[in-house]
Amino acid sequence: MVKVGVNRFGYCGHLVTRVSFTSGRLDIVAINDPFINLNYMAYVFQYDSTHYKFKGTVKAKNGKLVINGKAITIFQEQYPTNSTGVFTTMEKAGAHLKGGAKRVIISAPSADAPVFVMGVNSEKYDNSLKIVSNVPVLAILWHDGHGAAQNTIHASTAAAKATGKVMLELNGGPTDMAFYLPTPNTSVVDLTNCLEKSAKYDDINKVVKQASEDPLKDILGYTEDQVVSCGFNSNTHSFIFDAGAGIALNNQFVKIISWYGNEYGYSNYIVDFMVYMASKE
């Protein structure tokens, strides 16, 4: 089993750890976070308002975080640049390699690290790469000074730019925009397409459903149910295609709707990619 160290035990860090324990696919051996103490680590890991209480045991004991009986070594090293998300370039992330890590996955947008997404371009990864980014870039600029629980807020996002990094044939093509909604979790993509080749919407659904069964099983979900956002809390898929929500103006102008969990779903595909990287050793 792959041995993994987690640097920063914020929301992404503790959900990746939770997924690792519930799936049994990774061995979390160390956690570093200079900003929170051990008792608080145990608390935030055990209780989650969105994804609910961890179905297992967790406690702080003898300076270690003990999850389901496994003791994890805790470090609280404050690196020279001690703010969240600073190790996002190849140079800065390389400090982890010097510290003994074999490979580094940056779970944040990176200016120069190659970006990989499971099921999209993961087959292009090779084990000569020591540092990679594994993130759907959702860096958002939004209108500050307004209550998030009271408003739908227009925002800009770098998702289209990130798509061009992962799928080079689309670089410079898609454009995007976003809205913040007063919901605790789950995002939705409304993708409007002008197709080069005509296709009936029912045929598109059939192709996506087939892909969700194989070869994108466990990565792409598919539903024909009348769903709402909270139905996807703690969903492990990277995307869930909503067949009933899409529409087609004609056979060349199609709107596709997909849901995704930018917390639990994302944490799962980080784990997926770590397991995939290990398979290439």
TrEMBL record:
Pfam families from the UniProt entry: Gp_dh_C (PF02800), Gp_dh_N (PF00044)
Gene Ontology annotations of biological process type: apoptotic process; glycolytic process; regulation of translation
GO MF annotations in UniProt: glyceraldehyde-3-phosphate dehydrogenase (NAD+) (phosphorylating) activity; NAD binding; transferase activity
Keyword Metal-binding tagged: no
UniProt keyword annotation of DNA damage present: no
Domain Glyceraldehyde 3-phosphate dehydrogenase NAD(P) binding: 2-137
Name of the top EC class for this enzyme: oxidoreductase
UniProt-annotated location(s): Cytoplasm, Cytoskeleton; Cytoplasm, Cytosol; Nucleus
Pathway the protein takes part in: Carbohydrate degradation; glycolysis; pyruvate from D-glyceraldehyde 3-phosphate: step 1/5
Family: Belongs to the glyceraldehyde-3-phosphate dehydrogenase family.
Subunit structure: Homotetramer. Interacts with TPPP; the interaction is direct. Interacts (when S-nitrosylated) with SIAH1; leading to nuclear translocation. Interacts with RILPL1/GOSPEL, leading to prevent the interaction between GAPDH and SIAH1 and prevent nuclear translocation. Interacts with CHP1; the interaction increases the binding of CHP1 with microtubules. Associates with microtubules. Interacts with EIF1AD, USP25, PRKCI and WARS1. Interacts with phosphorylated RPL13A; inhibited by oxidatively-modified low-densitity lipoprotein (LDL(ox)). Component of the GAIT complex.
Family matches, as PANTHER family: GLYCERALDEHYDE 3-PHOSPHATE DEHYDROGENASE, GLYCERALDEHYDE-3-PHOSPHATE DEHYDROGENASE
Protein name: glyceraldehyde-3-phosphate dehydrogenase (phosphorylating)
